[in-house]
Design a protein that fits this description.
Layout lengths: L5 H22 L6 H8 L3 H7 L3 H25 L6 H15 L6 H10 L4 H27 L9 H22 L4 H12 L5
Length: 199
């Protein structure tokens, strides 16, 4: 029997994930059954269960895909030379959010993931660790801002980074739930909050 290629296996797995994502976006995690995903994927029961033995496995894999793109974007912001002003770094992060906040993006699923962490301890641990990594990226941005005098040298970069990162989910939650504000309006508000009074 010919060996199935790694590319074929990866494509089949992605086919199932894409089907699950469509189902979850359409009907939510709790209203979607494994049978729904199997029908959406157009595959046999055995084919789907070979890759994902349970719906929780699917949800965790979806969560990883939701989060992975953001982690890559945040890591790239830290590596930019010369260091980005904090509002510009936030602007770039929110530009990524805008690409993923629509009905076909991954971020509407993030809100479902947050809810699911309240009942799934393993997913909760995954999300906790991931968000800790996000905060580390933003703390690194703050340390770089301290080096160029944008942030006071005696400020706690972990605290400032956590507050700065909180602006990202705060933005996309409002965008997804209410459709507003737009990125430019939001950033104008952030600039006002971060403005240091003249001395």
């Amino acid at each position: 029997m010919p060996r199935v290629s790694d590319e074929h296996l990866a494509a089949r797995r992605q086919q199932i994930l894409d089907a699950a994502r469509r189902c979850f976006l359409r009907d939510g995690f709790h209203n979607t059954s494994m049978q729904d995903v199997i029908a959406e994927a157009g595959l046999s029961v055995g084919a789907v269960y070979r890759y994902f033995p349970s719906k929780n496995d699917l949800i965790t894999s979806i969560a990883q895909s939701v989060i992975g793109g953001a982690d890559e974007v945040f890591a790239e912001l830290v590596a930019v030379e010369p260091p980005l002003p904090l509002v510009e770094a936030l602007d770039r992060a929110l530009s990524y959010v805008d690409t993923q906040a629509g009905p076909d993006g991954v971020l509407p699923l993030a809100i479902q993931v947050w809810s699911e962490t309240q009942r799934d301890p393993a997913l909760a641990e995954f999300v906790k660790a991931t968000y800790a990594g996000f905060r580390r990226h933003f703390a690194a941005l703050v340390r770089r801002a301290q080096q160029v005098g944008e942030v006071p040298a005696d400020a706690d970069p972990e605290a400032v980074g956590a507050a700065l990162f909180a602006l990202v989910p705060g933005y996309f939650m409002q965008r997804i739930l209410t459709g507003a504000p737009d990125r430019h309006t939001y950033l104008a508000g952030v600039r006002t909050l971060l403005a240091r009074p003249a001395r």
